Amino acid sequence: MNRLLDNLCQMIVPVDLGVLAEYQHRIDQLTKPKGSLGRLEEIASGHGAIRHPQVASPKRKYTFTFAADHGISRSGVSLYPREVTAQMVCNFLSGGAAISVMCRHYGIENVVVDVGVDHDFKPHRRLVSRKVGDGTRNLLEEAAMTWEQAKEYVRVGADLADEYAKHGADLVGTGDMGIGDTTASSAIFAAVTGLEPQEVTGKGTGIDGARLRSKVALIRRALDLHRPDGSDPLEVLARVGGFEIGAILGLILGCASKRVPVVVDGFISTAGAVLAILACPLVKDFLFFSHRSREKGHRVILDGLGAKPLFNLDLSLGEGSGAVMLWI
Known about the structure:
The structure is a single chain. The protein has 14 helices and six strands. Helix 12 (267-279) links the parallel strand 5 and strand 6 (287-289). The protein has a single domain (59-327), classed as Rossmann fold (3-Layer(aba) Sandwich). The longest helix is centred in the middle third of the chain and has 20 residues, at 147-166. The protein has a six-stranded parallel beta sheet with strand order 3-2-1-4-5-6, sandwiched between helices. It has helices at 3-10, 17-28, 39-51, 83-94, 98-106, 147-166, 181-193, 197-200, 209-226, 233-240, 243-257, 267-279, 296-305, 321-327, and strands at 61-68, 109-116, 127-129, 171-177, 262-264, 287-289. The model has no long low-confidence stretch (mean pLDDT 94). With 328 residues, it is an alpha/beta fold. It is globular, with a radius of gyration of 19 Å.
C-alpha cells in the first residue's frame, strides 16, 4: 500500500473498549429503563469513547461537501449534464441548496470544497479550492486519474481533517456533489467486493430502465478494461474512482487519526468509507453510517460492512444531507 496511506493508518489508535463500556455505564445510570433509548445510546457512548478524554458533547460540527466532475458523465449515465455540478456549487455558495439550508438552520458549518469541478469559480469566502484537475478522465478509455492525482486527493482530505481538528472540530460529516458520481461509486463497490455491477448499481438521478442497463454495461466494460486490484484502495480509486471520493477517503483517515468521529452520508460517501476501511479496518470504529439511501447497492454494501444505518428515508440527494439529519 502507498506510504501516505500507511502513515495515516499508523496514526489511528483503536477505540478503548473499556472507555466505551464506561460511557455506556454512565448512560445506564440515568433515570430511564436500561437500553430504552435504543441506538441513541450506542451513538452517545461511541462518540464519547472516540473523543475521550475531551468533552463528549459535540460543540463544533462541520459537514464537508466535496464537488468534482467525472469523465464518464459524457457517456449518458445521468439525466443531467456535467455543467450541473458547477451550478450546484454556486447554489451551495448562495445558500439555496438543501444542505445549505439544513446547516444554517441547525448551526452546522458547511464546508464546500472544489476538488475538481470543470469550472473556474470566483473566490468566495465559503469555497475551499483544492483542485488538482478539472474532473476525472472517461474510465471507458483510460484510468479515471493518475496515481499521483489519487494520492494528492487523499492528502487533500487528510489535510482538511488536520486543519479542522485544529479549529476544534468535534464531529465531521461527509458530503458530495458530482454528475456521474454514482457510476464511479458502483464501479468501486464492484471492484472491492467482486460482485457483478448490476448488483451494486442503481438509477442515480432517476434514469429509466434502458439507461440503467447501459450504465451497468459501461461499468462492466470499465472493470474489464482496468481490472483494478480490489484489495488496494488507492489502485481502485485511481482506476475507476472520483476526486471527491478520494478526498472523502483521506478525510475519514485523517479524522480517525485525530480522534474525530465521522458521520457518513449516502452512497458516494460510503464508497470513500469502504476504501478507508480497506486501507485500515480500525477506522470503522470512528464511523457512524447515517442512512441507507435509495441506491440499489447501498443496502448490499452496508450489509457487507456489518454497518447499521440509523434511518431509511429513501434519500438520494447526497451533499451531506443524510449526515446532517443524524445530528438534528
